[in-house]
């Protein structure tokens, strides 16, 4: 009985151990699958978000570099069109030194190429001497430049090699166009720079046509057609693609049959848009590295379990050593990837800080110039009132001196309002709009200018309607525009005998204020409203008054124009939209 029972007990023990081993193994496999699935989903979302953020930053850098190049090149035609040497060469037909001069300008500024064309569209000067004598009379960059007074930008298709981007401007001599200066923008260099990265990059115009792309076959095609899959994948290929994408988020798009992450942004230039496509390879590699560590850990745990439940200690020990070695290799690889990622993030952070600092310096310069200009008028008035108050106190007339001090206090309050309103010059208005009677605004501006008007003998005539002329505007900024116009009129009549300024306010379809003087007139109407353009001596003005005034009137929904009056003098006309009937009724109540 005992002999027969022992083998049965051993058999039962063996069966129990086998059942427990199978149960433990099954539980560990289920646990491993669950942990791997959850970890994969979480890490995929996290690394995908990191990759997308880096793609967004690269997109911003790409766009910023391209806009900087366009803006830098757009100034060149304006500078060259005002060069008297080119105008004189076109007028006399002597172009012996023209090409050499253009080559010198190109080397100094660093543009792609420059061409000078005469009235017939023939190239008479060029940095590429092979183009001399070529006719461009039918090209859009030539025809549009002759028709317009401003700089014209043109993007023309160049066969299958891409697009030519050109800034052109007509050269005016004695009031008529005598030729065109054309400057090419080299945007192809950015295509070559983008091609050095893993991202696929393209730029479309306002009509959705691809004009720049790292893939040459995309140029000139609509975006949807350029991104279409060119070849039908087989059933095996689709199965392999589904297997590769099983563990990642749904892709934004498929590029040549490969799942990619799409990043898109608007380029602040003529409705252009920039699109980048980033492959999921880096995300998949990083996720797979972590998953490999997890799988390796479960494998080690499973090996240890087999070692504890079985008697094959030596084989389990060897397997553990081999797996430990592989784990160390994977760990070293992950450490290298982490170090590379930290280095890239530091470089991107430095680039972002540099861009932010540049923006701050530019904004600081603009605000300093604006503050200096806007506060000159109140400071001059305060100086006059202080001198008057001092004389009144010396003559023992304190009541009249107190009146001057009250005016100084009002000016200080106005200076505070101006500094609070200066920030609105850099954005669209509308936050402080209120119903304003332009007659009262004109009266307030004249009161502000009272010290300057008393210092000189100037005849001022006012023609105002009897009924209110109501507009929706920022009162402080509207008065500032009127003060700037009055101040310019006073400066223009400084050297005139019998100076006179006419102020005419009327309303029809719009409210219009006309400021007319009998001064020397305006020599350069085209550049009158450009920032920092001034005909005054150094120290008397910085050339921001009319530029700021034009911007303010534009924010109020109107326009500011200037012309020379018949018989001499200048005329400035400010037109603003009138209030609607509902708003007028509310203002009256």
Order of strands across the main sheet: 2-1-5-4-3
CATH topology of the domain at 21-281: Beta-Lactamase
Range of helix content: 40-55%
Count the E strands: 17
Oligomer: single chain
Between the first and last Cα atoms, what is the distance in angstroms? Answer: 117 Å
Overall spatial form: flat
Count of helical stretches: 15
Biggest sheet details? 5 strands, antiparallel
**SS content category:** alpha+beta
Determine and state the CATH class of the domain at 21-281.
Answer: Alpha Beta
CATH level 4 superfamily of the domain at 21-281: PAS domain
Which percent band covers the strand fraction? 15-25%
Poorly predicted tracts of residues: 1-7, 229-248, 423-430
Average pLDDT, all residues: 77
Question: What would you report as the Rg, rounded to the nearest angstrom?
Answer: 38 Å
CATH architecture field of the domain at 21-281: 2-Layer Sandwich
Enzyme class: transferase
Catalytic activity: ATP + protein L-histidine = ADP + protein N-phospho-L-histidine
Function: Member of the two-component regulatory system DctB/DctD involved in the transport of C4-dicarboxylates. DctB functions as a membrane-associated protein kinase that phosphorylates DctD in response to environmental signals.
Membrane topology: Multi-pass membrane protein
């Amino acid at each position: 009985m005992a002999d027969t029972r022992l083998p049965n007990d051993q058999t039962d023990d063996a069966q129990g151990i086998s059942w427990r081993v199978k149960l433990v193994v099954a539980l560990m496999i289920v646990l491993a699958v669950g942990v791997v699935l959850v970890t994969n989903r979480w890490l995929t979302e996290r690394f995908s978000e990191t990759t997308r953020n880096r793609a967004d930053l690269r997109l911003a850098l790409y766009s910023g570099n391209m806009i900087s190049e366009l803006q830098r090149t757009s100034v060149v035609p304006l500078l060259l069109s005002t060069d008297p040497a080119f105008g004189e060469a076109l007028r006399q037909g002597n172009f012996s030194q023209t090409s050499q001069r253009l080559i010198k300008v190109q080397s100094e500024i660093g543009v792609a190429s420059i061409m000078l064309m005469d009235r017939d569209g023939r190239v008479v000067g060029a940095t590429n001497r092979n183009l001399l004598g070529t006719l461009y009379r039918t090209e859009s960059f030539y025809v549009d430049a002759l028709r317009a007074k401003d700089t014209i930008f043109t993007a023309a298709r160049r066969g299958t090699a891409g697009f030519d981007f050109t800034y052109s401007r007509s050269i005016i001599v004695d009031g008529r166009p005598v030729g065109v200066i054309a400057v090419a923008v080299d945007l192809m260099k950015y295509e070559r720079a983008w091609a050095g990265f893993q991202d696929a990059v393209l730029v479309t115009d306002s009509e959705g046509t691809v004009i720049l792309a790292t893939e040459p076959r995309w140029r000139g095609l609509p975006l949807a057609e350029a991104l279409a899959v060119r070849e039908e994948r087989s059933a095996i290929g689709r199965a392999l693609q589904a297997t590769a994408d099983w563990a990642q988020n749904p892709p934004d798009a498929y590029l040549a049959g490969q799942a990619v992450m799409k990043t898109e942004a608007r380029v602040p230039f003529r409705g252009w848009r920039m699109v980048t496509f980033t492959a999921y390879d880096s995300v998949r590699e990083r996720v797979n590295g972590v998953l490999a560590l997890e799988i390796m850990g479960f494998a080690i745990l499973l090996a240890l379990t087999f070692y504890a439940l079985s008697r094959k200690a030596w084989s389990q020990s060897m397997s553990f050593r081999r797996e430990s070695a592989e784990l160390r290799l994977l760990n070293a690889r992950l450490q290298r990837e982490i170090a590379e990622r930290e280095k890239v993030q530091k470089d991107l952070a430095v680039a972002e800080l540099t861009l932010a600092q540049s923006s701050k310096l530019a904004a600081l310069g603009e605000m300093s110039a604006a503050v200096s200009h806007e506060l000159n008028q109140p400071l001059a008035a305060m100086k006059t009132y202080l001198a008057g108050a001092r004389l009144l106190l010396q003559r023992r007339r304190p009541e009249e001196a107190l009146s001057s001090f009250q005016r100084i206090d009002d000016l200080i309050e106005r200076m505070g309002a101006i500094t609070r309103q200066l920030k609105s010059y850099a954005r669209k208005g509308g936050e402080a709009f209120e119903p304003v009677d332009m007659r009262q605004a004109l009266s307030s501006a004249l009161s502000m200018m009272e010290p300057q008007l008393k210092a000189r003998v100037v005849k001022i005539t006012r023609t105002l309607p009897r009924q209110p002329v109501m507009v929706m505007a920022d009162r402080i900024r509207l008065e500032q525009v009127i003060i700037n116009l009055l101040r310019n009129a006073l400066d223009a009549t400084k050297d005139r005998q019998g100076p006179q300024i006419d102020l005419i306010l009327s309303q029809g379809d719009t409210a219009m204020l006309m400021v007319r003087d009998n001064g020397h007139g305006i020599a350069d109407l085209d550049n009158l409203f450009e920032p920092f353009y001034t005909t005054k001596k150094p120290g008397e003005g910085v050339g921001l008054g009319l530029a700021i005034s034009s911007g303010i009137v534009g924010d109020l929904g109107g326009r500011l124009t200037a012309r020379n009056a018949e018989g001499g003098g200048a005329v400035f006309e400010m037109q603003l939209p009138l209030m609607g009937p509902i708003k007028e009724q509310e203002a009256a109540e």
